[in-house]
């Protein structure tokens, strides 16, 4: 029977080896099968009854080094909780303005298309006055921030190009001495030379949404008259390459992957299509959690092709395949593993009494999304119709109690999180708990199984990569 006095660990295997993830130190132990079985039995029964003397010795040695501790968090509290007022007053890092809720396209999966819960296209535009107030608020609350980052978001933000121009000019006048960065996310159908020339002048990073070759892109990204938008976008990209070649390094593409499409075709497009292949691209799957009915449909063939590309990526990482054969789409997959397992997995000696699962940003500080009416939200991904996600407004400022609640979303599922081996890798923030304006335990717990499966998969793949590069040893601390 598992209890709280046995090691707080998680067991997993690859084809070649046995591993134990040690929650308290964040270390991964590679052990032989006797040790693995004995520790597993210890966790299950609460007793360490090894019949193998070697195994007993190895387990004692691991324990002496500080691993296999049974300690669990006593309290769930986000590390930023105590200093939250200070962070919100002085350290804001990014402001995104929703300059309009209108769009000239009707993408099937867009959060404003009507296929999603809680969001619909409207003609609400941000006034210049609201934009100025939001900029002033940001400048006032970022005295300890070296660089100011501004994003322009829609609907389609270029419908409000005049407003964007005026706002950037206002920012430049009112934030002298600070470094600035600008981002704009667009469907690229409204770009013209005048706009690109302005964007180039202010080094605005441009993220263009494109989903693959014409036959795939035009299925989802359609104009109001139901015609596709691909040809217009390609023409505009060509215009940038020909007339503003030095602006190219500020342009990137963002692709929404729809599993009903042919993965090979999309992959081929981003790897070889002239005019696209030279730019950086990022990829995200269609978010299924907001969709009302059957827009999302998993396709087996798509998964198979995707997994094969992951396999090729692994082959390239161990020098068995030339990098040029690796899909751009799955490159991000490797970076995720690297990010989670190497960069964000400090192995520690001490055990904390208080902690919070991974996931939540410091809402308002890391990012502040101001919608067209001047209401505050943590980011562009959350629903603007959700009362739970509204963290203030241009007139009332930050609602610190609500922000405290959002960053401490782990307290909603406190008991489950205290006993969850995957907590340090968890990626659930309040967005995943939002159920039509209420923070719901059930809604959040719905995603937990998936989180643990994904984390275990990442652990396995990380160890697999290590196996390919490292020599065999009885116990290896990764
Ligand atoms: S998705 Fe969640 S963690 Fe990410 S920025 Fe938005 S609110 Fe913060
Ligand atoms: S997966 Fe669920 S139980 Fe585990 S830490 Fe995340 S929210 Fe908590």
Overall outline: globular
Largest sheet report: 10 strands, mixed
CATH architecture of the largest domain: Alpha-Beta Barrel
Helix- and strand-based class? alpha/beta
Q: Give the integer mean of the pLDDT values.
A: 88
Number-wise, the strands total 18
Which band does the percent of strand residues land in?
A: 15-25%
For the largest beta sheet, what order do the strands appear in spatially? 10-9-8-7-6-5-12-13-14-15
> What fold name stands as the CATH topology of the largest domain?
TIM Barrel
Please, how many helices?
15
Estimate percent helicity: 25-40%
Radius of gyration, in angstroms, nearest whole number: 25 Å
Task: Write the CATH homologous superfamily of the largest domain.
Answer: Aldolase class I
CATH top level of the largest domain is Alpha Beta
Overall tally of domains = 2
Instruction: Identify the bound ligands.
Output: iron/sulfur cluster
Give the N-terminus to C-terminus distance in angstroms.
Answer: 28 Å
Low-confidence stretches: 113-118, 289-296, 470-475
Pfam families: Radical_SAM
Protein name: Radical SAM domain protein
Cofactor: [4Fe-4S] cluster
Keywords: 4Fe-4S, Iron, Iron-sulfur, Metal-binding, S-adenosyl-L-methionine
